[in-house]
Amino acid sequence: MIRPLLFVLVTCIGGCFAGEVQDRHASVVDSFVPAPSLDLEAPFSDPDRALGPADGRTVALGLGSALTLRFFRDIPDGRGPDLRVVELGPDGARAWVAVSADGVGFVEYAEPLVDGDETDLDLADVGLTEASFVRLRGADEAGIDPGFDLDALEALH
């Protein structure tokens, strides 16, 4: 009797975990405007590379680019940081970040993100109680790819 119950419990936990991972990361490319200098045949020009958990596959956001990603659920403003931006490459690239609850009215953070492994952002810093959309705009052409090498977005609450 214990073995069937254990099998059902493990199966449920596996399914619940998969759903949680999906909910914690950007899931849909809402819009993408590539930088004019971006080689559209290059692998780092695919905006889908920024979806899901961090996996080392990036999309390059150079000057003139804009990428809007959507989460399956709202990201609430909780205690501490609410959103993590994962970027690869220590090459000085920067990107502007804006968040929105409805995908129409965006509020941009005061300072651009500078490359690095992870940057945590708090929705309270821009006066929002929740967000479902995140837009990143490339601020320069620094780096090999060139631009800000976005790997993933993660909701922390």
Describe the structure.
There is one protein chain. With 157 residues, this protein is α+β, with helices and mostly antiparallel strands. It has one domain (2-155): Galactose-binding domain-like (Jelly Rolls), CATH 2.60.120.260. The chain is 15% helix and 36% strand. It is built from 1 helix and 10 strands. The strands form 2 sheets. Strands 1, 3, 5, 6, 7 and 9 form a 6-stranded antiparallel sheet that branches. A 4-stranded antiparallel sheet has the order 2-10-4-8, with no helix packed on it. β5 and β6 (107-108) form a beta hairpin. The radius of gyration is 17 Å and the shape is globular.
Task: Set down the secondary structure blueprint.
Layout: H1 2-24, E1 28-33, E2 59-61, E3 66-76, E4 83-87, E5 94-100, E6 107-108, E7 113-114, E8 118-121, E9 130-138, E10 148-155
Antiparallel strand pairs: 1-3, 2-10, 3-9, 4-8, 4-10, 5-6, 5-7, 5-9
Brief rundown of the structure:
By secondary structure, the protein is α+β, with helices and mostly antiparallel strands. The protein is built from one helix and ten strands.
H/E element sequence:
HEEEEEEEEEE
Tell me the name of the CATH class: Mainly Beta
Q: How many domains is the backbone divided into? A: 1
Secondary structure category? alpha+beta
Give start-end ranges of low-pLDDT stretches: 1-19
Strand content: 35-45%
Kindly provide the radius of gyration, computed on alpha-carbon positions and rounded to a whole number of angstroms.
17 Å
* Overall 3D shape: globular
Query: For the record, what is the CATH homologous superfamily label?
Result: Galactose-binding domain-like
The CATH architecture is Sandwich
On the 0 to 100 scale, the average pLDDT is 88
